[in-house]
Amino acid sequence: MVALSMADGYARVTNKPQCVIVHVDVGTQGLGAAMHNASCGRVPVLIFAGLSPHTIEGELRGSRTEYIHWIQDVPDQKQIVAQYCRYVGEIKTGKNVKQIVNRALQFAMSDPKGPVYLMGAREVMEEEIEPYKLIQEHWAPVEPTALPPSGVSAIATALVDAESPLVITGYCGRNHAAVPELVKLADTIKGLRVLDTTGSDVCFPATHPGWLGLRYGIDDGILEADAILVIDCDVPWVNTFCHPGPGARIFHVDVDPLKTQMPVFYLAATKRYRAESLTAFRQLNDFLATDPRATASLQDPKFAARWTALEKSHSTLLSSLAALALPPAPSDPAPKITTPHLASLLRALCPPTTIFAIEAVTNTLH
């Protein structure tokens, strides 16, 4: 659990796959909730576990020598974690070990990124092979996918024509280059608001007038929006609390729009596309800068008025958040330290580069 959590964090910071080695079935079980975290966080990590030796009489180097080799010989070890992995495989011979490892890493680093799991018995680990090399360039991950031209036009036009356009995201901040592209989109379509559901890294700066906050499940912006772009987001809203109005046009863009690891998932989207967020944002920004109709529409004075309204509402939001962080009043008969106040003190005392790991139930619905 600790090792995979460390690998998870380092992979998020560097965007480079990390490796964890664990001991057969019990070590695999010990990964625990860290497997869920890595899968939902779209984190590229490779996990390798041994298998109990499969020979008993000394037929191969590595045959069983300890009683535990019988106890830890389970019917299907990979099934302990398979449903959280992008790929699971067994190294059956040392002669193609590099190909198997590279294939696993291709899955780990291709969208949607995530954990992969390899295993191998002791006989394979002790197999003697002739040294060989691969051309590593042949094992690169799948390149990012883009929106079709019709999708670019449909989404951009809908956001420009809308009275209350909204973007809901959660993972696009994993690629830091995507953040300024989303900011550019919000600067171009003045009045566009962004709700960040924090599936991972922060996706949109709180200093921008279009920022609605960091929360999921419920927000007035969802109720008011007449055009919504859901991009790189697992849970844009929780239907039992909040959902868009019946006339809202919804566009769903994701590297995994079907959410293949979720048995129950659906959005009432007008259109859905499999595309990577940075690429999609760049396509939308290019379209808005070059399409004659879009550029003409954006010159309408109503967009300037919307920007002014956003600045006012944003200032009100920041003031309300600042008020939550105030210390208890001296006259309060039962003063208590609130979570926002404690968080504000920590922010003031810790370096700006501090990374906070929070193991708490969310209160973002409140």
Automatic annotation (TrEMBL):
Any single GO BP term: isoleucine biosynthetic process
Gene3D superfamilies registered for this protein in UniProt: 3.40.50.970, TPP-binding domain (3.40.50.1220)
Domain Thiamine pyrophosphate enzyme central: 153-259
Signal peptide: none
Recorded GO CC terms: acetolactate synthase complex; mitochondrion
The UniProt record lists the keyword ATP-binding: no
Alphabetically ordered keywords of this record: Thiamine pyrophosphate
SUPFAM superfamilies (UniProt xref): DHS-like NAD/FAD-binding domain, Thiamin diphosphate-binding fold (THDP-binding)
GO function terms (MF aspect): acetolactate synthase activity; flavin adenine dinucleotide binding; magnesium ion binding; thiamine pyrophosphate binding
Domain Thiamine pyrophosphate enzyme N-terminal TPP-binding: 2-79
Entry keyword Magnesium: no
Pfam families: TPP_enzyme_M, TPP_enzyme_N
Record InterPro entries: DHS-like_NAD/FAD-binding_dom, THDP-binding, Thiamin_PyroP_enz_cen_dom, Thiamin_PyroP_enz_TPP-bd_dom, TPP_enz
Family that this chain belongs to: Belongs to the TPP enzyme family.
Protein name: Pyruvate decarboxylase
Organism: Glutinoglossum americanum
